[in-house]
Design brief:
This protein has 14 helices and 15 strands. The protein is an alpha/beta fold. It has 2 domains: 268 residues, 3-Layer(aba) Sandwich (Carbamate kinase); 93 residues, PUA domain (Archaeosine Trna-guanine Transglycosylase, Chain: A, domain 4), CATH 2.30.130. A hairpin with a 5-residue loop joins strand 13 and strand 14.
Amino acid sequence: MKDLRKKIIKKARRVVVKVGSAVVAGSPGVFTRLGSGIHELKSSGREAAIVSSGAIALGVRRLGLKERPATIPERQAVAAVGQGSLMALYDAAFSEFKETVAQVLLTHDDLSDRGRFLNARNTLLTLLRLGIVPIINENDTVAVEEIKFGDNDELSALATNLFEADLLIILSDIDGLFDRDPKKDASAKKFVLIEDVDSIDMDALGNGTNRLGTGGIRSKCEAARKAAHFGAATIIADGNSDGVIERIMAGEDAGTLFLPKEDRLTSRKHWIAFSTRPSGRVFVDEGAKEALINKGKSLLPSGIKDVDGSFEAGEVVHCVDLKGMEFARGVANYSSAEIKRIKGLKTTELEAVLGYKMYDEIIHRDNLVVL
């Protein structure tokens, strides 16, 4: 087990560290510990970025509130108060180690749009090249429900693709994945290694949160699953323990290690599967479904039975069977209005109906991900 962990750590050249609200608002000296850990990580020739929660938690503390506000506008206001404090704490602590930090605020729209995704990637990779540590957070002051990531666990998973990272470290107030809640049952057993994250029953994990944060162990395991499909390993560990980043990078058995998938998705397909929010649905017959899942084929108009929703060419859509169950998603070459006109037709008939033919395929296999 230790040899496997050390091998994975040794290969990791680019690391994303996610810091939860319970860690940020937890024990004294947390920012100095993070600065020390990131400095040592970088001194070993690696690159690092941080996905940090805590703006709302620090805002709650600064305003003397007893708990997180319930409404989006209230959370936005509290985040506006806390974000400045959060970055000031990072800047002061990291300056002790002669490390420069940069604030990066994102919404889901920034990653679901392919152009903005690539622009964000270029900016972040430039920061890394300059030796600067990006501190990423959701832009809580402008995010509304439909563009929220949900929690920064998901944002950290999407950042593994954005940064093309090899390792995701999630620092929480719990030291990994247990067979039961260790805060309620002292006999709970920790899983040191998860070989196949897809084998975890996510529904059984529940949706536990605390008064300062939104993510529970389920959201962290979901993040590990998304990272695994990009080919990145994940370690969930106790962020309140001394030297946790240093111990992880030394290959010690801190937290739970989730292995990456061997059949990793390309960066583009990972973006299609996890970063986008599909705009509509195309209903596919059984023959086309079989061809997409088991034969690696593209989706042709002849296999489409119906269309739901309004979308333009270039947007990501759900591919569902005739019962409405999603089995894939991909980038549509035609709009919903065009697909309604050519559904069920052979590719040789498209030009006669539309007056033009841009593509033979509704979704090309290179732009399609089977889920």
